[in-house]
Amino acid sequence: MNSYTLIHIVHIAIIGGFLLYVGIAEKNTPVWAFRALFVTGIVVSLYHSYLYYKQGEELATRVFHAFLVAPLLIWVGVLQQDASHEAFRFVLMAAFASIGYHAYALIRYS
């Protein structure tokens, strides 16, 4: 199994599943899950910003994660139950995008 296959599987099973849970549960999401969203957002932002700075490649992937996904996760993680219904809809959209894109890539490129 190469590293890209592992990335696709993790995004489908773990990340997509977790975002799907938060997007559906909305204000009923437990506090630990909001904290996990916040920490994940910080890590995603730092990781993808660093990779772009260090390698300067895959611009679309880096920008998408650092400027769209990470701020969304941080925002919902900070606001927790006070986040708007629309913010949770965006989390749900991120879940579907993660699962859909990575399932497609896993089938197409692996």
Basic shape: globular
- The number of E-state strands comes to 0
State the secondary-structure class: mainly alpha
Radius of gyration: 14 Å
Distance between the termini: 9 Å
Domain unit count? 1
- Strand composition percent: under 5%
Q: Write the H/E string, N to C.
A: HHHH
Low-confidence blocks of residues:
none
Mean pLDDT: 94
Task: Summarize the amount of helix as a percent range.
Answer: over 70%
Task: Summarize the helices and strands and which ones pair or pack.
Layout: H1 3-25, H2 31-55, H3 59-79, H4 85-109
Task: Give a quick set of tags describing it.
about 110 residues, about 85% helix, single chain, globular, mainly alpha
Describe this structure in words.
This protein has one domain (3-109). Helices cover 85% and strands 0% of the residues. It has 4 helices and no strands. Helix 1 packs antiparallel against helix 4 (85-109). 21% of the residues are buried.
